[in-house]
Amino acid sequence: MLNAFLSFTLKKQLLPQKGPTLLAVSGGVDSVVMSTLFHQAKLSFAVAHCNFGLRGTASDQDEAWVRALAQQYEVAFYVHAFDLPTYAQTRGISIQMAARTLRYAWFQTLCEEHGFEKVATAHHGTDNLETVLLHLTKGTGIAGLHGILAARGRYIRPLLFSNKAEILKYAQAEGLTWREDSSNRQDNYQRNLMRNQVVPFLQKLNPRLEATFRLTLERLGQVEAVFNEQVATVCQQICRHQGTDYYVAIHAIQDKPWAPVVAWELLKSFGFNFIQISNLLAQKHPTGTMFEAARHRLYVDRGHWIVTPCTKPSSQSYTIDATTKSLTMPPHKLQCTHIPRAQYTIVANKEVAALNRAQLKFPLVVRKWQPGDVFYPLGMRQRKKLSDFLIDKKIPVPLKAQVWVVTSGGKIVWILGHRIDDRFKVTASTQQVYEIRLKTIPGQAEE
User: Fold this and answer.
1) Burial 246-277 (b: 16+ CB within 10 A, else e)
2) pTM of whole model > 0.70?
3) In DSSP terms, which residues pair with 22 in a beta bridge?
4) Mean pLDDT to the nearest integer, 351-379
């Protein structure tokens, strides 16, 4: 097994380039075998143990046993006790989810404090089989079929080349001892039920289940690579970011038979599920139709889908006095300048407002547009509802909520990035120009 271990870690490039690997050791046979292989291979490592306290005295005995193992191998030992039930109850999540969240958060802290590049967990091939079967039972996309990856970020699984039977055989041959968790024999957890009941039944149908499954995973991994490459190509063609918004030109693919699964791959990171996406594609929705996920909204807009973060309506306003040179209002920044008319050249730029200084009453107020706002668009003698102006300009629904205006004495002076009010334009009699330039701050979202 040692040779297979070394071959696998080398092939998958799992080990850190320098420094020790942090091993997550529970005391069970899997993690004990992993630590033994690291020791036999003369690899540098440290041991981390989570004491969740779920089995009373037995949990404390596990901790003491793993501590002794670390001492035996003369490596650093880290331990942390967690109040798992309280954490799970206060957040309304399962014990298993709470354990996973706390465990990985602590590993992250250890890596930051002690400089570990890699954290090794003792997942093996049988765990992978159980994981994929659970995904299939609950429903999954192609990503759920690759199971547990050998490496993901800083986390590595150096035992994935082996299965449970091989690990037990190796442990017995080496005369190793380990701690048994009696809860693993109970079927009250989904994974235990899969391990104790479903997998043995499937092995009756195919005694070589784990070997054939490993080959299937290899083929599926290659299929996934091809699929991801094609999705990336489609994404380049139909997707774009604009500030904090994400545009999908869905009309380009909506008639393709594979549109639902590809659209879901493009949008699943925003919290939209496959059923939502399939229903969206199944019927036509008018412009302005909105669908919600937990933290994002999707708007239908003239052959596009626009995904935007959920934000609370802002009543915040800003003021600009006569001496203000710049104003930051994420994701925007305004730069203000007084310039003699004789030295100023008006440019056709929607992000620059050239205003007649004499018509302005300071302080100016910058705020979100409101229903009922009216102004005189540049070049027009009649006033127009701002809401009608935005409709005429075909401003997408989510972007309407992000429109700001500059006002003077209650009158709209400029719709930022769109149009100034005709009453404040520079004329032949203007002696001084007041210029406001709009800039977007990269990487910042609206407050």
Assistant:
1) bbbebeebeeeeebbbbbbbbbbebebebebb
2) no
3) 46, 119
4) 94
